[in-house]
Amino acid sequence: MQSLIDNARTFAERADDLRPLADGQHPHVLFITCSDSRVVPALITGGSPGDLFELRTAGNVVPEYDEGRGFGETATIEFAVEVLEVKDIIVCGHSHCGGVNAILHPGAPSALPAVHKWLADTEPHDETRKATDFLDGDALTSAVQRHVQVQLERLKGHPSVAKRLKYGDLSLHGWFYAVGSGKVSVLDPRDGRFRPL
Fold first, then answer.
1. DSSP string spanning 74-136?
2. Do residues 39 and 92 make contact, with C-beta atoms less than 8 angstroms apart?
3. Where residue 114 falls among pLDDT bands split at 50, 70, 90?
4. Rounded mean pLDDT of 108-121?
5. For 179, which DSSP code?
6. Which residues are within 8 A (CB) of 63 and not within 5 positions of it... i.e. 6 or more apart?
7. Cβ atoms within 10 A of the Cβ of 33, count?
8. CB of 119 within 8 A of CB of 99?
9. What's the whole-model pTM score?
10. What gap in Å lies between CA 69 and CA 7, rounded to an integer?
11. Residue 20's pLDDT band (boundaries 50, 70, 90)?
12. Chain Cα centroid distance, residue 146
């Protein structure tokens, strides 16, 4: 913790000119990924402050749109699309994902009740579990990649996203990040496979 404090204390001295950021944000991309500390969107993309609007959730889950419930994730998506007018949304899954692994191998619900409820309420388990039926690679990698596809389909059900997709000024992208190697693969919507970026 102390090293984090020390770096925060001296950040202003090390940072480039941040004054333009005080005038507002104008990111072009909403980057949806897992809360996993090994996944760092700006590091992966080379983004600078202000380039990416980030949504981080356990298992990079995008909840189905429900106008009767106020998910923070839904509010973030709506703000990015309606107010910030991002042009692209990336859903990025990653190797060694604990959230997707929990879907494949569910433990006792009482062990992590909040995690269990989050995954149970937001994840179509059958879709993720059947990933090994048609995707290459190890079971977890295949499941994570299928999981990304499921989240992209859910995004299409959000009214703000659906409207922009209809107008043709918003694009959705599926990515897979390999933690050990740093390699990124991208979903080819033509055949549902992930290929090197």
1. HHHHHIIIIIS--SEEEEEEETT-HHHHHHHS---TTTSHHHHHHHHHH--HHHHHGGGGT--
2. yes
3. confident
4. 72
5. T
6. 69, 71, 73, 74, 121, 122, 154
7. 24
8. yes
9. 0.88
10. 39
11. confident
12. 13
Q: What is the DSSP string of 19-66?
A: GGGGG----SEEEEEE--TT--HHHHHT--TTSEEEEEEGGG--PPP-
The answer to whether the CB of 55 falls within 8 A of the CB of 30 is yes
Could you count the other beta carbons within 10 Å of the beta carbon of residue 158?
21
What six digits make up the tokens of 28? 């072009």
Distance of alpha carbon 71 from alpha carbon 100, whole angstroms: 20
- Alpha carbon distance 3, 195 (integer Å): 38
β-pairing verdict for 88-94 and 171-177: parallel
C-alpha 16, offset from chain centre = 27
Amino acid at residue number 81? V
d(CA 62, CA 127): 14
At residue 55, what is the residue type?
Answer: L
Summarised one tens digit per residue, pLDDT across range 128-143 is 555 544 444 588 898 8
pLDDT tens digits, one per residue of 168-180? 999 999 999 999 9
